[in-house]
Amino acid sequence: MSKLTAKQNIKAIATAIKAEEQSLRARYPILNQQNKIAMVILLVSLCSLFGVATLYYLAVIPSWLCIILAAFITSISHELEHDLIHKQYFSNRPFIHNFMMLTVWLMRPNTVNPWYRRKIHLHHHKVSGTSQDLEERLVGNGIKSPLLRALVITDGLLGLLINTKRFNKEISGFKFFRVFNAGFPIATAYFAILYGVIAYYAVQFVQPFTLPPWGAELLAMADFLMVVLIVPNIIRSTSLNLVTSSMHYYGGVNNLLEQTHVITSRWFLPFQLFCFDFGRTHTIHHFVPNQPFYIRQLISKKIHPIMAQHGVRFNDLQSLKHANHYPVKELSSQQGV
Questions:
Q1: Which residues form the Fatty acid desaturase domain (predicted)?
Q2: What pLDDT does residue 58 have?
């Protein structure tokens, strides 16, 4: 790490990110068509999701392939939502902007609504690494117990229920029903179907019974949704929650340099696949929030060495043993970029 102050290092990184973006936009003027690019990505993703579901319905592809493809597609919609939260697209055209917000929520129905998430995400940027960071704590950041962490990462609703008592004590202004109701009606329907299907097959295993015709039709619809939307989003959100809760520090954070580390470890590659390489690129977002996700992808290879030079850590997976606490002492060496 250079001998500059934290403020100087932060400025150097942000300046390099912005310069690389400007250079990229100068070389590829099409990147300045930001609204159009976002809409194309959204429509292609949405049509792809419908296409994959249709192929499964027609028995052209097996369930496992449908689940994998849908999980990857919905990870793109998460990146779009992230950018929409920062008003990167159609900020002056509220109808289109809100249409996009609703669409990405429908594609990722196991989340709170994007309008509420905007509030907690912008707050996240202000308090990242502290006990007040509700967004990251909801997905497992700062939890030391591996079992509890796994439960929270895998099931957001269960995690909310488990941590409510602690959040009431530690997070200023936290209200359980404010978070819970932010999922109504889409996330509410998602979890009702998920838990309903699990309960049905559990009861069938213990005491088999026959459903009436209308019940069989509902079950067939639920089974279809499990394959094309619900299980893919379990994979997507679990992958994202694992990566983001692993790369954000919790405690001991004093500045931007200490909020996150970059994850490039090969052990995380399967999870990176279903969260659109989040671990490699999200730290860039912390230094320059108002930047489309595809720009971060395109500049990350050049920016990573600069970040390492100015004090950003890479693959600090040891922090997981200490509930994500930022190390007090500098490591003698960092893992490769």
A1: 62-316
A2: 98
Q: Containing domain of residue 298, as a range?
A: 6-322
- What count of Cα atoms within 13 Å lies in the side-chain half-sphere of residue 190? 26
- pLDDT lower than 50: segments of the chain: 1, 330-337
The 8 Å CB, 24+ separation contacts for 142-150 are 142/250, 142/251, 142/323, 142/324, 143/245, 143/323, 144/322, 144/323, 149/245
Number of domains composing the chain = 1
* pTM (two decimals): 0.94
Tell me which H or E stretch contains 119.
helix 114-127
d(CA 76, CA 173): 32
Any idea which residue has 């941590």 for tokens?
163
Q: 68 near 236, Cβ under 8 Å?
A: no
**221 in a structural domain:** yes
State the Cα–Cα distance between residues 317 and 235, nearest whole angstrom: 21
Amino acid at 10: I
pLDDT of residue 3: 81
Cα(first)–Cα(last) distance of the chain, in Å?
14
Distances (CA, A) of 129 to 102, 141, 184, 248, 286: 29, 9, 28, 7, 12
* H or E element at residue 19: helix 6-27
Q: Is residue 131 part of a domain?
A: yes
| Three-point CA angle 162, 118, 116, nearest 5° | 55
* pLDDT at residue 2, rounded to an integer: 52
In a domain, 46, yes or no: yes
CB atoms closer than 10 angstroms to residue 71? 21
Whether residue 337 lies inside any domain: the answer is: no
